[in-house]
Amino acid sequence: KYIELPSECAYTLFVVATFWLTEALPLSVTALLPSLMLPMFGIMPSKKVASAYFKDFHLLLIGVICLATSIEKWNLHKRIALKMVMMVGVNPAWLTLGFMSSTAFLSMWLSNTSTAAMVMPIAEAVVQQIINAEAEVEATQMTYFNGSTNHGLEIDESVNGHEINERKEKTKPVPGYNNDTGKISSKVELEKNSGMGTKYRTKKGHVTCKLMCLCIAYSSTIGGLTTITGTSTNLIFAEYFNTRYPDCRCLNFGSWFTFSFPAALIILLLSWIWLQWLFLGFNFKEMFKCGKTKTVQQKACAEVIKQEYQKLGPIRYQEIVTLVLFIIMALLWFSRDPGFVPGWSALFSEYPGFATDSTVALLIGLLFFLIPAKRLTKTTPTGEIVAFDYSPLITWKEFQSFMPWDIAILVGGGFALADGCEESGLSKWIGNKLSPLGSLPAWLIILISSLMVTSLTEVASNPATITLFLPILSPLAEAIHVNPLYILIPSTLCTSFAFLLPVANPPNAIVFSYGHLKVIDMVKAGLGVNIVGVAVVMLGICTWIVPMFDLYTYPSWAPAMSNETMP
User: Fold this and answer.
1) Is 162 exposed, middle or buried (0-12, 13-18, 19+ CB in 10 A)?
2) Which residues share a beta bridge with 392?
3) Cα angle value 7/13/14 (rounded, 5°)
């Protein structure tokens, strides 16, 4: 039964939105307010509100964090990143593409924050090696002309080398899965030894530092678009959509990857071209010239990457097991219900919809606690070494240090708020008020909603933005008789486009803390990437995504609209 005037729920929504946007309280603390306000206003009983704080999403998140914990514990992520960079070569343009590709790939499976924190020290070491190589060339030339060595230059190089080592020691991967919360879970202590203290020998050296920082930040965000588990906004949308439209069953890991991967790939390539043109110029002749002798800088760059890879040693048993489990998880996700052929879920046809992506994640996640990583031995009084126990791939303590409980509570608060809007009738009221928008072309409505979330997500956290907009956009789509996916998919993807400011998301803040960038640099570069992102999403929603979900037809799984709410 609907409340005649859903003003109480609207007030709750207003209070929570204000606190989320201003961050007067921590985001996860604000997310607890619906559990207090909804029962007090008589909108929902406390037991029903509490059930919204733990759903299928949380089980999926637990399984994914088990995988991420093992990957980072055994340094598999670093091996993958360095190997991909070694494959593309050391030409500056290809080098940045290599870093962007490896960063994007890692952020598909790890949090955007952890990926940026892990890759950035490697990129920083490579850039500083290039700068030092230029210094060596200058020193050699000065020795040749003057007949003596420039000792001052050698001292400066040694100082720079010390700064690099100290920076690498102080830069730690950010633990947890706190991507897009607007808060970084541990400080990156770089102010003292950041690029602000670095003397750039040439303008090109400084520009290269800027370019590498932006490549890492933006690619870690773009990679997260590709999978449902890649970023929290995707997970929030998937859980909200499946809860509101349980009869759809069209949105899963495979279907999401099918439509988002082409979009992310195009955005990544166009962003790479944009950043290259903006900072270094785009010389096709230089890039594709074959057989050219490598410069001293390129050789030095290749050497530092090779050395970093060699430090990892041969691939270990733990890395192999983690990689195998990772591949099995991905294959099970893709093959559960691919759509064009029956998936393995058809084996349980008597229980349709019971097994979800979280089932796979939990199954693989449990294996990380069962499979031994190494044996624990002890020496007996007789001097014999015996095994008395084993250590699993990950421990519960390690899992807890990575588990983003703040994200779990934040998402639960969003679900509780959405349930309150539905129970109170606020969603229906908003939909009726927005129904006149049905006179506008569908593409214009999509563009307006995409630009709105893209603008808001620059100053508010990504999860808070998508949580606020989903209960508004869903009734809007139903009111104007448009497939809800037609509006919700582009809005969800655009929520991740926080490229303009250092505070817009954690990856931006991490790279900005190295001191190479100014705010204006990020604004100029980010504006272009934002435009590229929105344009590609609009292109996708009007082309290859349409036949996948039959977006031009109002689906049977969506609520049937009365004539009064039809445009």
Assistant:
1) exposed
2) 372
3) 85
From the CB of residue 492, how many other CB atoms can be counted at a distance below 10 Å? 29
Q: How far is CA 424 from CA 2, 429, 564, in A?
A: 5, 9, 20
Q: What is the pTM of this model?
A: 0.70
pLDDT of residue 61 exceeding 60, the answer is yes
Residue 554 makes CB contacts below 8 A (sequence gap 6+) with 481, 482, 483
Upper half-sphere CA count for residue 502 (Cβ side, 13 Å):
14
Residue 550, domain member (yes or no)? no
Q: Virtual CA dihedral for 33, 34, 40, 43, nearest 10 degrees?
A: 170
Asked if residue 110 lies in contact with residue 68, where contact means CB atoms within 8 angstroms, the answer is yes
Asked if 262 contacts 540 with a C-beta cutoff of 8 angstroms, the reply is yes
Residue 469: pLDDT band by 50, 70, 90 thresholds?
confident
Give domain status of residue 340, yes or no.
Answer: yes
User: Where on the phi/psi map is residue 172: left (φ > 0), alpha (ψ -120 to 50), or beta?
Assistant: beta
Tokens 């990856």 map to which residue? 507
Torsion over CA: 512, 515, 516, 518 (sign): positive
Q: What are phi and psi of 294, to 5 degrees?
A: -70, 145
Query: For the chain, how many structural domains are there in total?
Result: 1
- Sequence-distant (6+) residues with CB within 8 A of 257 are 226, 227, 228, 334
408-438 per-residue burial string, b: 16 or more CB within 10 A, e: under 16? bbbbbbbbbbbbbbbbbbbbbbbbbebbebb
Identify whether 356 is part of a domain: yes
The boundaries of the domain holding residue 343 are 54-77+320-403
Amino acid identity of residue 492, one-letter, is: T
pLDDT digits (tens, 9 = 90+) for 106-123: 888 877 877 887 788 778
**8 A C-beta contact, residue 435 and residue 479:** yes
Asked if the structure places residue 449 within a domain, the reply is no
